Amino acid sequence: MKKAFILSIVLLILFVTACSNSADSLNGEADGSETGADTEEIELTFTTWGNEKHIEMYEKVLEEFHDEHPNITVKIQSIPHADYQQKISVLAAGQELPDVGWVAERMVPQFVQNGILRDVSVLKDDQDFEFDDFIPSTLELWEHDGALLGLPFSTPPMIFYYNKTLFEEAGIETPNEFVQKGEWTWEKFEEVSRELSKGEGSDRVYGARLFYEWTNFALMLSHTWAHGGDLFNDDMTEFTWDSPQGRNTLEMLDRMMFEDRSHVPPQEEINFESGKVGMFPFMYSYIANLRDITDFEWDIAPLPKGPEGRMPLLGQAGIVAFEDSQHPEEALELLKFLTSKKGIQASSTYFVPPRRSVLESDEFINVPNNPPRESIEMALINEMDKARVYPQHKDWTKIESEIISGFDQLFSQIAEPADILKEMKQNIDPILEQATN
């Protein structure tokens, strides 16, 4: 009896211990305290072509992401912009793509064709993400066949910088004053450029410079768009700049350079900061180069309008989640964080924000040495919905080379605008045709 009683006690203890261990094991799996997925140490790679200041900004903002996701470490990898597209393509071929990364507008056609951008449409229905806060024009580049293949973080529209001091000295109304009167047209721009121009030799002051680099003809497209023309037809099977609107654009440039001498001569590096250029168009991000100028007063204005209104070019860079990530859910969380209001607010120090709430915020507008709020609203905020993205084609490099060759002929005065555009068409149409076969 005694032995039987002792044996019963031992069996009871063993049973209770087993039940306790089983419960602990189940609890451990449920809360992730021992083997749950939340404790797995994960490293995500985030690629950019940013400079040191951009990377420092991201490192700081990612500290908060790490606080929210202590098991996730984000490695920032900077690749020079000139090498970025090729590098990503090589990584894709070797199935070594990063998890998340920057993508510029010119890279999108190839990456879409290669199928390496992940559909992140699920974010549209995420109430915490507030997708409706994105300005619609900033999303067009990333929407393909019903899929959302990325989200913008930098959306600078082209604007005019103008030397307010030169306008005052010449007794000419400023572009913003013409805007308020409804008179800021391309014809008025050309007229004002002539009136601002004066002097000779090294003392010459020019009314305008329409090129940042002599191979960058982006502003010319805004002039053509504003007059109802375009570079291609809708399905990009035909080069359509050889048109009355295209000729009008090149003829304006030809007049300003060689007849009126109101435009900086071809290949001469006389920039806006020198104080010898009245008006200069570029993206809003260029403002960082001007905030410390003390030699003259400057301001910003919207582009002139044509018969079809204003058509500023919208620069684009976005953040994407790449396909085949080993940690797709965590990569999506990182993309969501970087393009959230918080993430976009942090990056707005350097980039024009695509979220309206950030674009109109005091933090974005009231930066020291910025133009007045009224100018920013007039030139930037009110123009975002009218902006158009750069033409996208997988063979854009070849097409661009032919267009640049045409401008070289214009700059050298070896051909007339009509003949230049005709030759462009002869050389570019076969590229477009080959791309469709």
Automatic annotation (TrEMBL):
Keywords: Signal. Residues 1-22 form the signal peptide. Pfam families: SBP_bac_1. The keyword RNA-binding does not apply. InterPro entries: Bact_solute-bd_prot1, SBP. Gene3D superfamilies: Periplasmic binding protein-like II (3.40.190.10). This is Sugar ABC transporter substrate-binding protein.
